[in-house]
Amino acid sequence: MSIRFGTSGWRAVIADQFTFENIERVTEAVCRYLTTDKPGNEQTLVVGHDSRFMGERFSSIAAELAAGKGFRVLLCQGPTPTPTISHVIRSQGASGGLNFTASHNPPEYQGIKFSTADGAPALPEITREIEEAIVSGVSVDKSKGGSLEAFDPGPAYLEDLRSKINFDVISKAKGRYAYDPLWGTGRGYLDKILRNSGCEVETLHDWRDVTFGGRSPEPGESQLEELREIVKTKKLTLGISTDGDGDRFGIIDNDGTFITPNQLIAILTDYLAESRGWTNGVARSVATSHLVDRVAKERNLKLYETPVGFKFIGELINKDEIILGGEESAGLSIRGHYPEKDGILACLLAIETVTVRQASLGEQLKDLYRRVGKLESGRIGVKLTDEVAATLKEKLAEEPGTIGQRKVEKIDRMDGVKFLFADGSWMLMRPSGTEPMVRIYAESESKQDMEELLEEGRRYLLE
Ligand code: G16
Fold first, then answer.
1. Spatial distance between the Cα atoms of 375 and 265, rounded to a whole number of angstroms
2. Ligand 1 atom nearest to CA at 7
3. Domains of the chain (ranges plus CATH)?
4. In this structure, are strands 147-151 and 176-180 parallel, antiparallel, or unpaired?
5. Which atom, in ligand 1's list, is nearest to the CA of 309?
6. Tell me: the pLDDT tens digits for 129-150?
């Protein structure tokens, strides 16, 4: 059976492919990758887990195995957000991190994200080496000198966030917020830092439920109904949410409107350019709204487009090329932060912009649309059935002159296939690297047109 690292890490169904045996195979392969040039006993490895089923047991197995190979292993205590693990890797000078999480996937999944010494999700050339090491099955010799330490990752990470967010203004404003961590790892992090700053925070779903209420812990609009009701009835400043491993965000404005990740990324690009006076570039994935391009143009920022996967944006953060990098799947990070998406940081930035500008996100969007024009973007998923899988490769390789009635102006194959049309609208189709789905994304100036494009995409794929 092959173990493959997708868009971010290896994900599999518990007791199907995600077994003790396979955890050991992956851990062995990571140790082998790390010890190729350097013995384990000169290296630190961070190991953590999210709030999923048996996360502590799975992470302990990996931690003990790596300690046996000579690594100094820091085992994070309690469910730990992915960005927090990035911080630990960087601040402890570790060679990498093994994070037991399946992020936003449904509850039956578990997974392992491997991050490199810079705290970034491992790039494809590295995960390919690890996959090869899994296949070869050659194990690393046992080594003396390894150790296993329990590590509290929270305090230093939260302290680090304090240096990146304008907490003076947030504390003075004494805003009222509701936070839904969706039973995930953000609990005890985002609520804590806000409460310690004098804010009022009502939390919901802040206990451990390994079934995540029977759904995926993904802070999309349909998941945040309860949060929306609380924000509206209690007239709160903002509703905030994070996903299972705390790297994605979800935002509800003060009137109960769900602010899409595309919208927040555009607002924050504009806000950071204005408030920090930062001037270099901004990055978005190929699936993310071109509203970002318009803000970039107005603010004179260089625009970078990447394939889907935060690892590609992380590289630009490392090189200090961008002030913000974001993905429509609700991930972002900023200049000077880690090359990993951080949902906790994103929620704090949303609070900061609302507080500093004294304007709701809806009001800020209105202003942005007035300046650069409005764009409507959307996404649907088509299940990757055997039938769809059989023709997918050919479909994505085709070069149609038109899609529906629209003339295709340009075809971009950076990730899947993206059709760009003369009026600036576009449609993208690509297989997901985290779940068995084909994603179709579209954007246009009108909502109806965008929805038509999504349907045309579905037809194109299925007919
Ligand atoms: C992961 C990656 C993201 C990517 C998202 C969706 O998010 O880290 O960079 O945008 O998957 O990828 P795909 O469309 O291939 O499923 P997470 O939060 O699940 O780790």
1. 13
2. 15
3. 10-153 (3.40.120.10), 164-372 (3.40.120.10), 376-462 (3.30.310.50)
4. unpaired
5. 9
6. 999 999 998 888 888 889 999 9
